[in-house]
Structures are given as structure tokens and as C-alpha cells.
Automatic annotation (TrEMBL):
<keyword id="KW-1015">Disulfide bond</keyword>
<dbReference type="InterPro" id="IPR029070">
    <property type="entry name" value="Chitinase_insertion_sf"/>
</dbReference>
<dbReference type="Pfam" id="PF01607">
    <property type="entry name" value="CBM_14"/>
</dbReference>
<keyword id="KW-0732">Signal</keyword>
<dbReference type="GO" id="GO:0005576">
    <property type="term" value="C:extracellular region"/>
</dbReference>
<protein>
    <submittedName>
        <fullName>Putative chitinase</fullName>
    </submittedName>
</protein>
<feature type="domain" description="Chitin-binding type-2">
    <location>
        <begin position="504"/>
        <end position="563"/>
    </location>
</feature>
<feature type="region of interest" description="Disordered">
    <location>
        <begin position="418"/>
        <end position="500"/>
    </location>
</feature>
<feature type="compositionally biased region" description="Low complexity">
    <location>
        <begin position="609"/>
        <end position="620"/>
    </location>
</feature>
<dbReference type="InterPro" id="IPR001223">
    <property type="entry name" value="Glyco_hydro18_cat"/>
</dbReference>
<feature type="coiled-coil region">
    <location>
        <begin position="126"/>
        <end position="189"/>
    </location>
</feature>
<dbReference type="InterPro" id="IPR011583">
    <property type="entry name" value="Chitinase_II/V-like_cat"/>
</dbReference>
<feature type="domain" description="GH18">
    <location>
        <begin position="34"/>
        <end position="411"/>
    </location>
</feature>
<keyword id="KW-0147">Chitin-binding</keyword>
<feature type="compositionally biased region" description="Basic residues">
    <location>
        <begin position="424"/>
        <end position="433"/>
    </location>
</feature>
<feature type="compositionally biased region" description="Low complexity">
    <location>
        <begin position="472"/>
        <end position="483"/>
    </location>
</feature>
<feature type="compositionally biased region" description="Acidic residues">
    <location>
        <begin position="625"/>
        <end position="637"/>
    </location>
</feature>
Length: 637
């Protein structure tokens, strides 16, 4: 062997040092994933007016992981949509997973279970080895077919409620082990990224001790979604805040309320054997409301006379979305807001005999900082559709989620957000069901292994709106290939900018907006952390135009369109003395319309008909029939 020169030795030492630093940073990355997990409830699409929330309302750069709540499973041990009409026929699954076309790092999971599912199906399933085996195989098939990145288990709760058995604890952990092992086996055989496996777990210690084998679950789960809210329900005899960070009273032998707080729950899980980086802390974007027994007694612990009045949108007693709460405070001067302990809990507000406790931006930041200080695995929100997603109260959308996310990333020296890939559509079926409760139906999700935050925008790339028909829009941006892996934590890539070559469109707000000169085109304005509001341009499928009232592509007869489009341009022929219009149909095209993320339900129900696009001599406006989403919900199929 020839002796190495001094310069070569130096270079080798530098290389080895760099490799050591790199490996160390990757190890730290694996230990410090900071997740921003958001649950989406598929029944929020049935809420009235501006409260209606669909996957198209989701900013794909807001969360690192999105969880679709809920799916279910059958007696034949297969996963199934909870609401076939919304999930399949209306393309709920496809639109949801299609958000990944914008943020390649986004992960989408399907949650199964929830409060309404109970134990009657879960307990027999986990107790039977053959049924577990069938369920595992079928789950992989269903998740892959619908382009989900993982499964969130939300059994509420093993060894509790009707249908439970004492052995649920052991059997549930066994199901998790078999799911994880089969997920890994499928990944190694196919070369696809392993499916994620997460679980929604209760904050109450009695539930945990009786139904959850924490050490074994910790071994096989990617992380736990802690339901650190509903420490108090609206049906208790005294008013209380449902999600305190710390105890509001001194701990003592007989003061059991001192255990009902997030800090106590986190310490309990750590002592039970959970890794801190696998604990994702839940933050509510809703409040719990009460009817006061005496309107003059409003302090924490005051007597309650049942749950509070239902909100106009959520329509459930004792439960108010944050946008309902903040709208009441903004529009009604009679409400009084009290914050007796800002370090320990969110505020509460009262008006007459109505009382509501909720989390605001300040306590959301404190909870996120708590996560960072304790090196936990991230933050989770129940749910994305309960936050002020239209920004009506504070002039910005998602104030609770954004406040917590910014505080988390600031505390961990990381940049902002992240999101996921596209999905293949399923053929629509025709059955329909309606959801139940709007509150305790949860699911959890998370990200797989390490996540790369890619700040890459390819020049001239086509951008597809999450839908069954690909709508094209040209992205003319410079390419910056900075595939960054920052401390093992997820950051959000910037959305591709898609300027319209014919118009300088400026986004005034987030949402969908018509093209100023072409009725077939529209813009989706999304907020990017460093670029601000960015306009993404899309073109409706042939024969359709953009309907701002429905925020979707629709038949021209349903839309008032005063702009001329290529199909409605006037054609003229000149002679030496006069100009005459040519009243002939230049083209006649027959198109079968398929349901897409950008097609309204009205269009879907007319999908069996054909549309004829004809050039005419003048552009004649079409008129909306006046009835919008709510009337369409009740249409006969």
C-alpha cells in the first residue's frame, strides 16, 4: 500500500467528519419530528352556508399530516367509507388525497372508528386471529386503492363501553403489531413507502390503564395522537374548561380534578413507556358550552343546567366551533370574555345564561411551546374545519392552527409547513348515508419515517387541482433545487406560482376566484409562508365555466358570465360595403362529464346527458337559478 500524502489524509479526515455530522443530524432528525396533524371531518360538508367545509377548502400547506375522519369497517373485515355519497360519489377521498399534488411532502391518512363506532365491531375483530389477518390484508388494499398514506386507529375505547371485553387491551395491541409488520412487508416487496400507522388515544388515565398496552403500542406505532381535550364535558353539573394545559388547582390526595390537564396526561404516558417524540399533543379548535344555572354565577365551577345552546353551523348542544365563538364575540357586544389563568388554560366567555370555554391563539401558542420544550412529537388539531377557516374574525384564516404552528416552528428553529401526493379516482357508487355526532368522532395520522422538505418548483410544470379530471395550468417560475432536511422536522415547501400570461392577477384573499377575462378559467389563491398569497390558475373541463357562487365548474346555464370566451366570440365577414355576421355553428362537441373536484353536484346529477358547445354570434349571459348548495343537498337521486 502506498503511503498517503498529508493533503490526502486531511481531506479524508474532513470527509469523515462531515459524514459524522450528517449521520448525527439524521439521527437528531429522526428523534425530533415536529408534526402538524390536522383532522378533517367528512360530515362538515353538510354544514349550512359559509360553514360548509370540503377538502377543497383545505390549504395543502397548512399541515404536515391530514387525517380523514372517519372510515369504518365491515363484518367481512374490510375498510369502508363512512359516507359513500360524500367519500366516493362526490370524490371526497380523491379530493382529499389529491391535495398532495400541491405539497409533495404532505401525508394523508384515513381514520377509522370514532365515538359513534364504539366497541361493538372492534372487540370481536381484534379477538379473532383469522379476522385480524383478513383485516390487515384488506386494509392495505383499501388504503392503496384510495391513495392514503396510512391508517389512524380510533377505537373509543377498548375494554370500555358496550361490546367491550377485558382482553381488548391485549388484542388491540396484537392487531397493531400485525398491521405494522404487514405494512413493512408490503413496502419491502413493492418498493413503495411504508404505510403510516397511528392511533388516537385518550387523555384519561383510567381508559389508558384498562385498554392500552402502551409499551407494545409504542413499539409498533409511528406516533400517538393524544385526545388532550374534553377533560370536562358539557353534561357535567359545573362549568369548566375542557382542555387546560396545567391543573387549575393544587394537587392533593382527594383532588382528582388536578389530574385532568394536559401536563398530567403527558407525564402519565411517558411513565407508561411512550417515547416523547411519539406523543402528538391535541389542541381543540372548538369550545364546550354550558347553560348556567344562575346567570350571575359565572366563575369556573359555577353550577350548570345542562349543555349550552347549539350553534347555527355545528348544530350540537354543548359544542361550538371556534368560528362560531369568535363570531359571537365580534358581533354581539353582550359577551364578556374572562381569562383567569392564561398560563394554564384558554379563556371562557358568557352572555346571559350561556357559558363557553375555548382555546384562543394565546393558549394555542403556549401549548405548542410546551411541545417544543418537552421535545414531544408535534401538535394535532381537532379539527381543521372548526377553526375560523374563512378568516372572518381576525382577518386571517385558521388563526388557532397558524398560531400554534408558528410557535412550534419558532421554538424549534424550523421554517413553516408541508403536504402530499395525488390519488387515482374511484368509480362513484350511488348509495348515501348521513353522519352522526359532530364532536367525538376522531382519527389520527402521521408521517412516515423521515420527511424531506423539498423547496423545488420545476419550470413549466403542470399543476393539477385535486380532482378526477386533471385541470392544467402552467407554472412559470425559476427552479431552486434545495431538497432540505432540516433537523428531522418537517418544513413546508412553497406552492408553485402560476401566473396567467394574459393577466396580472393579484390575490386579495385565499379561495377561488374567476378569471377576469375568461369564464372557463379560475384561480385558487393559497397562502405561502414566504411568498404570500399565490395564484394557481386552472381551466374548467370542456363545456363548463367557473361558477363563483358554488366555487366550482358548472354548466354555463347556471352562471352569469359577461366575459367573452373562445367559444362565444363573434365571427364576422366583410364585404366592400357591409359587415355581416356568420350565424352558423362552427363546432359541435359532445362530452360526457365526470365528477371532479371542481364540478358541482348539480353537474354530477346531469352527468348522463350530453352538452353541445356551439359558437354563436353574440355572447349571451346565462343566469343562475338562485338556489345553491343547500337546495342541492336535498335533490332526489
Amino acid at each position: 500500500m502506498l503511503p498517503l500524502k498529508h493533503g490526502a489524509i486531511t481531506r479524508i479526515l474532513i470527509l469523515l467528519t462531515l459524514m459524522a455530522i450528517c449521520c448525527n443530524s439524521l439521527a437528531l432528525a429522526a428523534d425530533n419530528n415536529q408534526r402538524v396533524v390536522c383532522y378533517y371531518t367528512n360530515w362538515s360538508v353538510y354544514r349550512p352556508g359559509t360553514a360548509k367545509f370540503t377538502p377543497q377548502n383545505i390549504n395543502p400547506y397548512l399541515c404536515t399530516h391530514l387525517i380523514y375522519s372517519f372510515g369504518g369497517f365491515t363484518k367481512e373485515n374490510t375498510l369502508k367509507p363512512y359516507d359513500k355519497y360524500q367519500d366516493i360519489e362526490q370524490g371526497g377521498f380523491a379530493k382529499f388525497t389529491g391535495l398532495k399534488t400541491y405539497n409533495k411532502n404532505l401525508k394523508t391518512l384515513l381514520a377509522i372508528g370514532g365515538w359513534n363506532e364504539g366497541s361493538s365491531r372492534f372487540s370481536p375483530l381484534v379477538a379473532d386471529a383469522e379476522r385480524r389477518s383478513q383485516f390487515v390484508r384488506n386494509a392495505i388494499k383499501f388504503l392503496r386503492q384510495n391513495h392514503f398514506d396510512g391508517l389512524d386507529l380510533d377505537w373509543e375505547y377498548p375494554a370500555f363501553r358496550d361490546g367491550s371485553k377485558p382482553k381488548d387491551r391485549e388484542n388491540y395491541a396484537q392487531l397493531v403489531q400485525e398491521l405494522r409488520e404487514e405494512f413493512e412487508r408490503e413496502s419491502s416487496k413493492t418498493g413503495r413507502p411504508r404505510l403510516l400507522l397511528t392511533m388516537a388515544v385518550p387523555a384519561g388515565t383510567e381508559y389508558v390503564e384498562k385498554g392500552y398496552d402502551v409499551p407494545k403500542l409504542n413499539k409498533y406505532l409511528d406516533w400517538f395522537n393524544l385526545l388532550t381535550y374534553d377533560y370536562h364535558s358539557a353534561y357535567e353539573p359545573a362549568v369548566n374548561h375542557h382542555s387546560p394545559l396545567f391543573s387549575l388547582e393544587e394537587a392533593s390526595e382527594y383532588n382528582f380534578d388536578s389530574e385532568l390537564n394536559i401536563d398530567y396526561s403527558i407525564k402519565f404516558y411517558l411513565n407508561a413507556g411512550a417515547d416523547r417524540e411519539k406523543l402528538v399533543l391535541g389542541i381543540p379548535t372548538y369550545g364546550r358550552s354550558y347553560t348556567l344555572y344562575n346567570p350571575d354565577a359565572t366563575d369556573i365551577g359555577a353550577p350548570a343546567d345542562g349543555p349550552g345552546e347549539q350553534g347555527d353551523a355545528t348544530r350540537e348542544k354543548g359544542y361550538l366551533a371556534y368560528y362560531e365563538i369568535c363570531s359571537n364575540l365580534k358581533e354581539q357586544s353582550d359577551w364578556t370574555v374572562v381569562q383567569p389563568n392564561p398560563k394554564a388554560m384558554g379563556p371562557y366567555a358568557y352572555n346571559g345564561n350561556q357559558w363557553v370555554g375555548y382555546d384562543d391563539e394565546a393558549i394555542a401558542r403556549r401549548k405548542a411551546k410546551y411541545v417544543a420544550e418537552n421535545k414531544l412529537g408535534g401538535i394535532m388539531f381537532w379539527s381543521i374545519d372548526n377553526d375560523d377557516f374563512r378568516g372572518t374574525c381576525h382577518g386571517k384564516p385558521y388563526p388557532i392552527i397558524e398560531a400554534a404552528k408558528e410557535a412550534l416552528l419558532a421554538s424549534t428553529d424550523v421554517g413553516v409547513n408541508d403536504i402530499v401526493p395525488a390519488s387515482r379516482p374511484r368509480k362513484p357508487s350511488r348509495s348515501r348515508s348521513r353522519p352522526g355526532s359532530t364532536s367525538r368522532n376522531r382519527v389520527n395520522t402521521d408521517n412516515n419515517n423521515e420527511i424531506k422538505a423539498s423547496f423545488k418548483t420545476s419550470q413549466g410544470r403542470k399543476v393539477a387541482r385535486p380532482s378526477r379530471i386533471q385541470h392544467t395550468s402552467t407554472a412559470t417560475t425559476t427552479t431552486t433545487d434545495d431538497s432540505l432536511y432540516i433537523g428531522g422536522r418537517t418544513t413546508t415547501p412553497q406552492p408553485p406560482t402560476t401566473p396567467d400570461p394574459g393577466a396580472d392577477f393579484k390575490c386579495a384573499d385565499e379561495g377561488f376566484f374567476p378569471h377576469p377575462r375568461d369564464c372557463k378559467k379560475y384561480f385558487w389563491c393559497l397562502d405561502s409562508p414566504s411568498l404570500g398569497l399565490v395564484a394557481h390558475q386552472f381551466t374548467c373541463p370542456s363545456g363548463l365555466v367557473f361558477n363563483k357562487l358554488a366555487d366550482s365548474c358548472d354548466y354555463a346555464r347556471n352562471v352569469i358570465c359577461e366575459k367573452q370566451t373562445p367559444s362565444t366570440m363573434t365571427t364576422t365577414t366583410s364585404t366592400t360595403t357591409t359587415t355581416t355576421q356568420v350565424p352558423t355553428a362552427i363546432s359541435s362537441t359532445t362530452n360526457r362529464v365526470r365528477i371532479t373536484a371542481a364540478i358541482s353536484r348539480n353537474t354530477y346529477f346531469n352527468r348522463g346527458t350530453t352538452t353541445t358547445t356551439t359558437s354563436t354570434t353574440t355572447a349571451t349571459p346565462n343566469f343562475l337559478d338562485g338556489e345553491e348548495e343547500e337546495e342541492e343537498e336535498e335533490e332526489e337521486e
